[in-house]
Design a protein that fits this description.
16 helices, globular, YtcJ-like, Diaminopimelate Epimerase, Chain A, domain 1, hydrolase, Urease, subunit C, domain 1, single chain, 5-stranded mixed β-sheet, alpha/beta, Metal-dep_hydrolase_composite, 21 strands
């Protein structure tokens, strides 16, 4: 029998010392310090540290998150001019270290890929001409911080059928397709890096992620398992292009994927219905102000872009539900959220509740950033989880104040959703925000970052609610031993929520197995 005793710890909200005994991957007992029968098991002295359930990030794009360290960081650029200067400097550095620069197997210059620009409030407009002036024949692909826009040079555009594109700014589906084609890269090297990135997540107390990468998730995680991935549980999402394959293979949400050691399960079915705020493609009832002078058509329409018409959305969700795939619907704008909720209501009508799980849940809306007041109550009634990324509010607050002026009181409305009985699930949308649930919880609780005044603090939730929306288990006898040991009580009140961002994690257990350990034997 394998086991581990976490001795002399504390539970959140309590000063009483406790022992947590783990046997065979399950919590065998939680009791007063010194009370556990720990014969034959290894012991870790916690010295008053706190034991919490292991953390989940309920929305990531794991491959994109893995690629971040390979890309030029554009997050500090405050204008197109500054972004181009960063590209110019990176190309110069690359040329100095590799002669004329790295080349592909075909002998052409290897693409320079950057990530993280947010142009919504820039004083100038990105264009391919600006990149061409510094890049020449070297392909340059710059991916926006929200993943919904690509800015590319002519040398990057032409080989992929976009040579005649007037601006070099590709949005939504065009961006997704283009990004993957330009940045194919070395799959084996990327897979090996992804295994390490999963281990880094475990160091922050993470035990699981919902990976909504755009395609090939099942195959990718089987490859990672073969390379030794053992640090996280994964729910691997399925997009519409893979529905047929899922049906043929009999894959249903919750099924364990063979070849993954039981750590990877089939996740939800992802459908993207609109865009994002920074790219001004989130589908809203009210038009965006035409601040860049490009007109609404440049961003898909004056009110944003509806990627999937309502009839098609209902059909995709019904098909997924009948296949046993739980819908996870991307909706950011208030109109997109209305249509997504309408589609969940359609499922209730045609399936009579057969698609709901034992808790009465039918699926999730991913992001749920801007909601009308009347739609807030519909989430709970329809069994829809609000899967929200609070750190986006910190990234987008200034943009929202301009493009959603007069409506921001109902943006990232966590408090209203919770008061209406909605199940919350918090995540990062990494790489849009870091894969770090402590940053996520801090944003949900404090509605602030970098010392700024809280943004709509009336929509904050308390620490217990934020933690509850970031875990799947409890520290209790009979529960799966997915645990984290942290230095401070995450529920303890303080003057700000910044202490959550700085939380030190001493150990992480996945099914009773240490995936991160600074405690020593």
């Amino acid at each position: 029998m394998s086991g581990l005793l976490l001795a002399g710890g504390r539970l959140p909200g309590s000063d009483a010392p406790v022992d947590v005994l783990v046997r065979d991957g399950v919590i065998a007992s939680v009791g007063p310090a010194g009370s556990a029968d720990a014969s034959g098991v290894e012991t870790r002295a916690l010295d008053g540290r706190f034991v919490i359930p292991g953390l989940w990030d309920n929305h990531v794009h794991f491959t994109q998150w893995t690629k971040v360290s390979r890309r030029l960081d554009l997050s500090r650029a405050s204008s197109a001019e500054e972004a181009v200067a960063l590209v110019r400097d990176a190309l110069a550095t690359r040329a100095a270290s590799a002669g004329s620069g790295p080349v592909t197997g075909a002998g052409t210059p290897e693409a320079l890929v950057g990530y993280g620009f947010r142009d919504a409030l820039w004083p100038d407009i990105p264009s391919k001409d600006l990149l061409d002036a510094v890049a020449g024949d070297t392909p340059v692909l710059l991916v926006s911080g929200d993943l919904h826009c690509c800015w590319a040079s002519s040398a990057a555009l032409a080989p992929h059928g976009y040579g005649d594109h007037p601006t070099g700014l590709l949005r939504e589906d065009d961006c997704f397709d283009f990004m993957y084609r330009v940045e194919e890269g070395d799959a084996s090297s990327l897979d090996a890096q992804a295994v390490q990135v999963a281990r880094e997540a475990a160091r922050r107390g993470v035990v699981g992620v919902v990976d909504l990468e755009i395609d090939g998730n099942a195959d990718r995680w089987r490859r990672l398992a073969a390379l030794g991935h053992d640090a996280l549980r994964v729910e691997a999402g399925i997009w519409p292009q893979d529905f047929d394959r899922a049906r043929v293979e009999g894959l249903r949400t919750g099924d364990v994927l063979d070849g993954t050691g039981g750590l990877v399960r089939v996740g939800p079915s992802k459908v993207v219905t609109d865009g994002s705020l920074n790219t001004r493609t989130a589908y809203c009832f009210d038009p965006y102000p035409d601040l860049d002078g490009q007109g609404g058509d440049a961003h898909g329409g004056a009110c944003g872009q509806l990627s999937v018409p309502p009839d098609e959305l209902r059909g995709l969700m019904e098909r997924a539900a009948r296949q046993g795939l739980r819908p996870a619907i991307h909706a950011i704008g208030d109109h997109a959220n209305r249509l997504a909720l309408d589609a969940f209501a359609h499922l209730d009508r045609v399936l009579g509740g057969a698609h709901r799980d034992a808790d009465g849940l039918a699926g999730s809306i991913e992001h749920a950033q801007l909601l009308t007041h009347e739609d807030v109550a519909r989430f709970a009634a329809l069994g829809v989880v609000a899967s929200v990324q609070p750190e986006h509010a910190m990234d987008d607050r200034d943009i929202a104040d301009v493009y959603w002026a007069g409506r921001t009181a109902r943006a990232f409305a966590l408090a209203d959703l919770r008061a209406a009985g909605t199940r919350l699930a918090l995540g990062s949308d990494a790489p849009v925000a870091p894969l770090d649930p402590w940053a996520t919880m801090s944003a949900a609780v404090g509605r602030s970052r970098d010392g700024r005044e809280p943004w709509h603090p009336e929509q904050a939730i308390d620490r217990a609610a934020a933690l509850d929306a970031s875990v799947r288990t409890r520290v209790a006898s009979g529960e799966r031993a997915d645990l984290a040991v942290v230095e401070r009580d995450p529920l303890a009140a303080s003057t700000s929520a910044d202490d959550l961002r700085a939380m030190r994690v001493s150990a992480t257990l996945l099914g009773g197995r240490l995936t991160h350990d600074t405690l020593g034997g």
